[in-house]
Structure formats: structure tokens, C-alpha cells
Design a protein that fits this description.
Elements: E1 19-22, H1 37-40, E2 45-48, H2 58-70, E3 73-76, H3 90-103, E4 107-111, E5 113-116, E6 120-126, H4 131-148, E7 153-155, H5 169-180, E8 183-187, H6 188-197, H7 202-207, E9 214-219, E10 223-226, E11 229-231, H8 240-253, E12 258-260, H9 269-298
Parallel strand pairs: 1-2, 1-12, 2-3, 3-4, 4-7, 7-8, 8-9, 9-12
Antiparallel strand pairs: 5-6, 10-11
Helix pairs in contact: 4-5, 8-9
């Protein structure tokens, strides 16, 4: 594997703090409504897909830069294709690095999936859960980190089939994290979705992840196709069971930054901000409890 001696260390455990909101083009003008100014104070950071913004100039480009000046900004990519048999697109990765420098973007993540095989597949496909695939993927993550000179995070992905599986999903994720020495973008909704679709205990899965590697988290809504099939859509409100899983994650790991994802079927912005407020409320509850728990353990 390639060494990563040039990688910058994140100044603190997390690249941002608090509760965030995914910035989508459909929201650009709506979030600037003066009537929402007070409510927008709840948003501590934002996130975009770099593929949607990296070559955008003109009026939209200026709007994006204004948001970068107003909020700490993160990138969540769609096209690294970390598990693909195709070579890494190193020119694209270098462009990502320049884009981050130009807009003072804090952090970059992508999915633990692949999306190309002799061409773009236009979907996020599951990497086979094998030790060989874990080693291969980790080597590619190390190369991405070397090219960027930065640590990145990989997101635990939703999936609907596991072709060629030889080890468990949790063992695969932990193996990649350890071998690549990278961080984790913890997607709470994906754990819930996969736990229903593949019939496992979401709490046990959650508690098997390494706390020290969590950079930040996503929470989102999904679509119930059937009692035993959930589709990860990011097109609906977060359900109570997923909120409860986030609550359990804070109780187990401590509070970490958490971002609300919504990609389509947008409700009024105030409803999105209500969900951001709920993230912040859970964070504050657990932050208030932590000194008490420390006092009990020290007593």
C-alpha cells in the first residue's frame, strides 16, 4: 500500500461542529428568505456534491461561493468509484483538491461503493464484501488521500444485494477503515435501511463501528417499498425509528456533527429547519448529560 505521510491532520476530532443541512440548487433562493434569517441560525455547516459545482461559474457560482463564505462547507462526492475495477480518475481528484482550496472547503467524503465499470453506471453499486475487495479499496483510498494531501471519509452505503459476499458488512467496513487509515461518514439512515433489508440488529451494527474514526454523520428519510424492503431515497422526512438510532449513537459515541440530507420532494424550508432543530436538540440533550455521566463514572 502507498504511504500517507503527507496527509494533514484534522485540527480537532471533527471537521465541523453542530447540525448541518445539505445545500441543493433547489434551495439556493429559498434559504435566503429574510423571514428565515432567525431560523437559519440553527444551521452550523453545509455540504454539497462537488460534481454539481466544480465547473459552475457565473451567477450560480457566485451564489455558491457566498454560501462558502457564510457556512463551513463540506464535500460529499458521488463519483470516486472506490471499489471499481477502473483506474482512479486522478485528474478529477486533483481538481477536487484545487476546488477545496479555492473555496476554503473543510472536508471531503465519498461512498464505500463503485459507480463505474468501463463507463459510468449512474448508480452506487455495492462492493463485494470480501477481504480482497477490502484491501483493494483501501489501497485506492490511500491513493486518494495522498493526491489530496488530506484525510477523507467513506460513507457506509445502503445496498439491496451482496454479490460475492464472504465476510459481514460490518467486518468489511471496519477492515477498509483500518487498512486505509481514513475516517467514517456515519450514515444513520443507511444502517436502519440495511438492518430492515438484510435483517440485522441496527444497534449492534452501530456499536461495532470505531468511534475514533467518525468525522460526522448523515440522517435522512427513505421510502417503504414493502414491509421488508426500504429504499434509501433522501426524499422524505426522517422517521422516529431513525431519530431513535441517532439518539442511541450519541449515547454510545458522544455527540458528533450531523447533517440532514434531502435531495428531492422538498417540503417548505421551515420543515427542513425543524429537522435541523431536532438534530441540535438531541445534541444539546446529550452534551448536557455527558458531564453528569463523567461525574458518576469518576465517583
Amino acid at each position: 500500500m502507498t504511504g500517507s505521510t503527507s496527509i494533514e491532520k484534522i485540527p480537532s476530532r471533527h471537521p465541523v461542529e453542530g447540525a448541518g443541512l445539505g445545500l441543493r440548487r433547489a434551495l439556493l433562493s429559498k434559504l435566503n428568505d429574510e423571514q428565515l434569517a432567525g431560523r437559519m441560525a440553527a444551521v452550523d455547516f453545509m455540504e454539497v456534491a462537488p460534481e454539481n459545482w466544480i465547473d459552475v461559474g457565473g451567477h450560480l457560482g457566485r451564489k455558491f461561493h457566498a454560501y462558502c463564505e457564510r457556512y463551513p462547507m463540506l464535500l460529499h462526492g458521488l463519483s470516486l468509484s472506490l471499489g471499481s475495477p477502473d483506474p482512479l480518475d486522478e485528474d478529477f481528484i486533483r481538481r477536487i483538491g484545487r476546488f477545496m482550496d479555492r473555496h476554503d472547503i473543510r472536508y471531503y467524503s465519498d461512498h464505500l461503493t463503485f459507480c463505474s465499470d468501463g463507463g459510468h453506471l449512474y448508480d452506487l453499486m455495492p462492493i463485494p464484501f470480501t477481504e480482497e475487495a477490502a484491501r483493494y479499496t483501501a489501497e485506492r483510498i490511500l491513493r486518494v488521500q495522498d493526491l489530496l494531501g488530506r484525510r477523507i471519509a467513506i460513507e457506509n452505503a445502503s445496498y439491496y444485494a451482496a454479490p460475492g459476499q464472504e465476510i459481514s458488512e460490518i467486518d468489511f467496513i471496519n477492515s477498509v477503515l483500518q487498512q486505509a487509515d481514513c475516517d467514517l461518514l456515519l450514515d444513520i439512515n443507511n444502517i436502519y435501511v440495511n438492518s430492515i433489508n438484510h435483517r440485522y440488529d441496527p444497534l449492534q451494527f452501530l456499536r461495532s463501528l470505531p468511534a475514533q474514526r467518525i468525522a460526522y454523520a448523515h440522517i435522512a428519510g427513505h421510502y417503504n417499498e414493502a414491509d421488508d424492503l426500504i429504499i434509501d431515497t433522501h426524499g422524505a422526512a426522517v422517521i422516529p425509528d431513525v431519530w431513535q438510532l441517532l439518539d442511541a449513537a450519541y449515547a454510545h459515541f458522544g455527540v458528533f456533527p450531523t447533517l440532514l440530507e434531502r435531495d428531492f420532494n422538498f417540503p417548505p424550508v421551515v420543515e427542513l429547519l425543524d429537522e435541523v432543530d431536532h438534530i441540535k436538540s438531541l445534541q444539546q440533550q446529550h452534551q448536557a448529560m455527558q458531564p453528569e455521566l463523567a461525574a458518576v463514572s469518576n465517583g
